[in-house]
Recover the amino acids of this structure.
């Protein structure tokens, strides 16, 4: 069967194959292991068809059966095993690693319940369990033959120099493998997710021999480890079950990595000590935030206690194996585990962490004698009150590379958050700006735009997004401008129909779709958007006949169940929507919609239909953002602060092609120094005062006038994110947005310039940088021959050797 592109609408005969081993030459590593507590995969069917080049063949086949493939696609549940950006980044990275031909594995937990389903009842968020496995999961394959034991609790026995962890409780880790196909290259990698199982003798060997029934029921306690995803984004909750999850994934994964490493060394006559010398050359482990940080003491435990390596050799190998990605600078998000909890759950690991810390502090003291404060700041153990382990410090000390996820974030990491560590080892700190996979976030979700681009510049851009720069030639092409605008309009009409079906509201598809979708958090400033909505409403009411550019404001996202303020923000948005949408004076000029249950599959619908993307976090708080990139690639313009990757988007497209407003990082620091006084903005800005007074007086909650008193109190007295300080600049910037929207041609030209500048934000580029600067592997653009070719021909054509198995 001839191989033709999925964009051309013809078929292709790609078939699943395991990814190739790389032969680790000098300075060349073998396998990449991406460790993450979250993989926010969404749906798999359409992505798999696209990457295999089978979408049109499947479309046609299903059509011949008298069915509609889109209906079939809508039946699939999202795999919601993540909260937001961090989990979705891991999913994009898996797609890029397979597409680049890297021998990479994603390792995580197979949560029985993913991120909760959000229902809005009477304007409030209500959580429902996400029973995503109810009808089974056709994409996974259980691998009981690779089941592994994981130990908890117990005590440590010392004899001479060796330590033994004994009397532990055992939980079994059962792996489930999901294939991760690369784009049109016959490569398929693996995501291996662990599920917790009680051993068959669980609770039956010890005390309660008499109560057989209770012992069997208690198996649930062990199996609860993989029951549910913690629903916090950018917030640390120091619960024992969460620490169990973190250690569970790490312990099972490291055993698997070492088993695979030893299998590749099979037949080697070298001693164990010499065998592990090559470990960092063949194994690279990336820690996605500090959640899998226990991997560092666990690998040390394996090397020292089990493999009997000397400490210094074990530590050298460990450091060269691990690299750590930091995802946030918010202090409340940093993991700091109480020593007492770690001592109870993982007593040997606590001893190892103490030893790591002692040697680390001895080294610092030798460089900075008498600098006690520096020792305190750099210690892995925080004293004062409850003793805690600073997991970020553990990751920095135990890794050979540390990276932030956008230029501005990496700079803050280097010069502020981990300043002492960066002064000590400046070469360790890097930047790797996040990216998104263009397969899901353009081909899959926006086929009209993908096809239009292919007509102009060919199809190679799908694997090399930097080729989008060729679109700059067509910025003044009237036909192309009209076609880009037409695709956007078609996407808007389709989404408007979806909204009318789901929400029973009539949407004007020629209104500006102003979209703010992401987790609900004070730092993301959905409240500032809300104040702007109220301001627009008041302007329409004040002068109903004045020209007003019609808007449909769409806000969506989940609040952590325990985050009171975020839940109040959702209620406020819904209360404002209730008033605005039912005011006959406003009519179709302004509509406000809160998108229920925002998730990957809903993002795929709303992003292609968006005109204006809201990226309005306080400067210095959003590490990168990736939604911003998805909107840019799909033909939305951005209104945003100079924060996260917005800075680099403005750099790539030209600041004049984004709507940038508000305080920069330096201005925020200056305001902190002076002391932020919300009252002065309220006193000085009449429209702000009016909006706040309406919230305060119960204009939007007539049945319960002081419903939003907590929100108002926060805005005046403890708003860490300074909503009022940026309000004026934001509203003025929004006026410029409306003005430009009236000129469809000028608007669309900016859109084209943005799409043409989006090439940098492919996760393929990000992964190439990780591969080159951190993992020291070469991506391969070699297409593995399909399996219908005779074996010997295939091996002749595949320089990397034979296919890897489990």
């Amino acid at each position: 069967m001839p191989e033709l592109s999925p964009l051309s609408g013809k078929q292709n005969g790609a078939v699943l194959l395991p990814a190739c081993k790389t032969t680790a030459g000098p300075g060349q590593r073998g396998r990449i292991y991406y460790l993450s507590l979250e993989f926010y995969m969404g749906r798999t069917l359409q992505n798999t068809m696209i990457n295999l080049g089978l979408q049109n063949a499947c479309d046609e086949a299903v059509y011949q059966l008298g069915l509609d493939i889109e209906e079939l696609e809508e039946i699939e549940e999202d795999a919601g095993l993540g909260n937001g950006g961090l989990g979705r980044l891991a999913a994009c990275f898996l797609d890029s690693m397979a597409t680049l031909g890297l021998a990479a594995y994603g390792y995580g937990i197979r949560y029985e319940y993913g991120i909760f389903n959000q229902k809005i009842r009477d304007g409030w968020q209500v959580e429902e369990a996400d029973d995503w496995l109810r009808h089974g999961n056709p994409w996974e394959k259980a691998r009981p033959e690779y089941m592994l034991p994981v130990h908890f609790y117990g005590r440590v026995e010392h004899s001479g120099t060796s330590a033994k962890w004994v009397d532990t409780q055992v939980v079994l880790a059962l792996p489930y493998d999901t294939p991760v196909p690369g784009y049109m290259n016959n490569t398929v990698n693996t995501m291996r997710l662990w599920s917790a199982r009680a051993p068959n003798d669980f609770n039956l060997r010890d005390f309660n021999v008499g109560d057989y029934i209770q012992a069997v029921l208690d198996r649930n306690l062990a199996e609860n480890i993989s029951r549910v995803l913690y629903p916090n984004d950018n917030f640390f909750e120091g619960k024992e079950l969460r620490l169990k999850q973190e250690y569970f994934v790490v312990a099972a994964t490291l055993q698997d990595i070492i088993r695979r490493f030893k299998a590749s060394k099979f037949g080697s006559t070298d001693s164990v000590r010499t065998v592990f010398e090559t470990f960092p050359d063949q194994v690279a482990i990336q820690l996605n935030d500090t959640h899998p940080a226990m991997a560092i003491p666990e690998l040390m435990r394996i090397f020292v206690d089990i493999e009997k390596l000397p400490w210094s050799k074990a530590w050298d190998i460990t450091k060269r194996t691990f690299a750590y990605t930091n995802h946030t600078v918010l202090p409340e998000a940093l993991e700091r585990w109480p020593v007492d909890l770690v001592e109870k759950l993982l007593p040997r690991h606590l001893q190892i962490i103490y030893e790591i810390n002692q040697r680390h502090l001895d080294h610092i003291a030798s460089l900075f004698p008498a600098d006690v404060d520096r020792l305190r700041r750099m210690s892995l153990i925080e004293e004062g009150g409850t003793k805690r382990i600073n997991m970020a410090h553990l990751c920095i000390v135990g890794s050979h590379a540390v990276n932030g996820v956008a230029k501005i974030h990496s700079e803050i990491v280097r010069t502020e958050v981990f300043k002492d560590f960066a002064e000590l080892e400046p070469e360790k700190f890097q930047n790797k700006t996040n990216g998104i996979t263009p397969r899901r976030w353009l081909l899959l979700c926006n086929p009209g735009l993908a096809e239009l681009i292919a007509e102009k510049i060919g199809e190679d851009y799908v694997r090399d997004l930097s080729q989008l720069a060729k679109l700059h030639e067509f910025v003044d092409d009237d036909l192309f401008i009209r076609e880009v605008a037409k695709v956007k309009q078609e996407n808007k009409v389709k989404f408007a129909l979806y909204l009318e079906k789901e929400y029973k509201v009539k949407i004007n598809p020629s209104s500006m779709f102003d979209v703010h979708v992401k987790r609900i958090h004070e730092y993301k400033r959905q409240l500032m958007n809300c104040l702007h909505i109220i301001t627009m409403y008041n302007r329409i009411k004040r002068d109903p006949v004045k020209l007003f550019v019609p808007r449909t404001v769409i806000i969506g996202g989940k609040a952590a169940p325990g985050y009171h303020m975020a839940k109040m923000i959702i209620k406020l948005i819904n209360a404002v929507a209730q008033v605005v949408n039912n005011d006959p004076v406003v009519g179709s000029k302004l509509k406000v919609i809160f998108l229920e249950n925002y998730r990957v599959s809903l993002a795929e619908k709303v992003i292609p239909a968006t005109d204006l993307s809201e990226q309005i976090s306080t400067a210095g708080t959003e590490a990168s953002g990736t939604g911003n990139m998805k909107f840019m690639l799909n033909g939305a313009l951005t209104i945003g602060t100079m924060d996260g990757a917005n800075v680099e988007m403005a750099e790539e497209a030209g600041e004049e092609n984004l709507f940038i407003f508000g305080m920069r990082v330096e201005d925020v620091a200056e305001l902190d120094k002076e002391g932020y006084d919300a009252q002065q903005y309220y006193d000085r800005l009449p429209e702000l005062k009016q909006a706040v007074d309406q919230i305060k007086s119960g204009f939007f909650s007539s049945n319960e006038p002081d419903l939003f008193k907590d929100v108002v109190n926060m805005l005046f007295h403890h708003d860490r994110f300074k909503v009022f300080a940026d309000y004026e600049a934001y509203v003025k910037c929004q006026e410029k947005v409306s003005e430009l929207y009236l000129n469809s041609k000028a608007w669309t030209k900016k859109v084209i310039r943005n799409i043409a500048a989006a090439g940098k934000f492919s996760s393929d580029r990000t992964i190439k940088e990780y591969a080159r600067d951190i993992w020291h592997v070469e991506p391969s653009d070699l297409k593995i021959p399909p399996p219908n070719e005779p074996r010997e021909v295939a091996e002749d054509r595949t320089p990397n050797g034979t296919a890897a198995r489990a």
